[in-house]
Amino acid sequence: MAKKKLCTAISIVLGAAMLTAGCTSAPEGEKPSIPDNTQAPATVSYPLKAGSTLTSWQTLNNNLLSVNIENMAETIFGQELEKQTGVKVTYTHPPVGQTTEKFNLMVASNELPDVVEYTWTAYPGGPEKAIKDKVILPLNDIIDQYAPNLKQIIESDPELARQLKTDSGQYYVFPMLREAPVQLVYEGPVLRKDWLDELGLPVPTTIDEWYITLKAFKEKKNVAAPFTARYAGGKWDLEDTFIGAFQTSNGFYLDDQGKVHYGPYDPQFKDALELLRKWYQEGLIDKDFAIPDSDGKTLDTKITSGISGATVGLIGGGIGRWLDTMKTKDPAFDLVGAPYPVLNKGEKAFIGQRDFKYNPSGSAAISASSKHVETAARWLDYAYSEEGKMLFNYGIEGESYTVENEVPKFTDLILNNKDLNVQQILSQYSKQAGPYLTDKHRNTNTYPQQDEAAQVWSDTEAVKHMLPKFITPTPEESAQAAKIETDLNSYKEEMFVKFIMGKESLDDFEKYQQQLKTIGVEKVIAIYQSAYDRYLKR
């Protein structure tokens, strides 16, 4: 898989589904109109014609900011992408924490760059409305004409094709895609493995075993907060740990018959609250669990200082970071990913953290005002070519990766850099998130505990019960749901904390359910059910 210039030509016969390769060049000029796919497609080779330029709006990875790189064009990746595609891109990045605000201002000004990376499913009214508002272009004809690599991926995966369409059948993004199941699961229950070994305890799998473990941490290790988890974004980040054991969720989900539910409105949600309340009263849950921890530093301190022995954490920003921190401070420090707990031994977890192959948050659309539609499409499509895939995933062969037995491997420059952590250096050589296909072999984990945790957390029925992020309520439905959910989430979280802390009696759970109904929970459930039913018909 030696590094070389990609030279691909495409010949599409009308009505045929497959593409063939060769070598040609892009036309000098282009118009902002959507291509007429009744004509023979333009052929292409990379790099594109000299002088090709684009503008792109996208968030900048925080790891780059941590090493004082403020623009994608300054990175080795950005420079290599320009070299390989022949397209000079002017990047604009919203300030950290202001993505939505800056996006809204940009749309209101009607001054959009050629390419915009955004969570287009979050656009008011959804991507269909964004197309109707002439903010972005429908991509069906553009993909047919100018994006053969993405076209081939879509045609080979009908379920993915469904995910990428609006209800009316219009493609709207060049998507962020993941190949391997373990890439879709990156968060779950984590415990101090060295403490479990010291106390002669197994990794807990059931609610009862978790109770025994947390009691042991408190009584035998004298731990102040046996279980803790980050509180951020207005909610406690449990990812349904403990709650899922009661066949419900902390948000919207699907039952086995494909019916939409709002977990906190379920009768069995009371059972989950009773459990968490009991543990809180016995001092097994961090008494300060509801204090916001936006940057995660409080959680880091509690895990690495021995204040807590269990949490819900990330593979990289949790297990990896904590093991790194303690490597020299306490060589005995060890962590293990535990299964999402169930009530009875041998059961499979009802739900847990899991993404879909298509991730709306890292995907790119072409703006309706772009005067460089063909260049934008070909530049974006390069990420889905074989050579583009290697650059986006691994960087530069011989520098950031090598190939052994046809499998890419990161070099010591990435995995054992003396000055920067893996994510900091890798973000300079590759794109951490965005519109490309993540290679199934890509793995930035530096500890076996991380790989093992991903496997353990993957063993749930989440794939059946997660409500897809890319369902699209109509503009009217979307406006209704957004208004109701603001009040719904605020009230639900307020009561969630009060129930657990004992500030509100669980005898009032039916009153709480009635208030959710008054706010409009059943209306939102009906909206999402309609959107999900339409999704299935795409």
From TrEMBL:
Signal sequence coordinates: 1-26
Calcium keyword on record: no
Entry keywords, A to Z: Cell membrane, Lipoprotein, Membrane, Palmitate, Signal
Pfam (any one): SBP_bac_1
InterPro entries: Bact_solute-bd_prot1, SBP
Tagged with keyword Nucleus: no
SUPFAM superfamilies the record matches: Periplasmic binding protein-like II (SSF53850)
Name the UniProt record assigns to this protein: ABC transporter substrate-binding protein
Lineage start: Bacteria, Bacillati, Bacillota, Bacilli, Bacillales
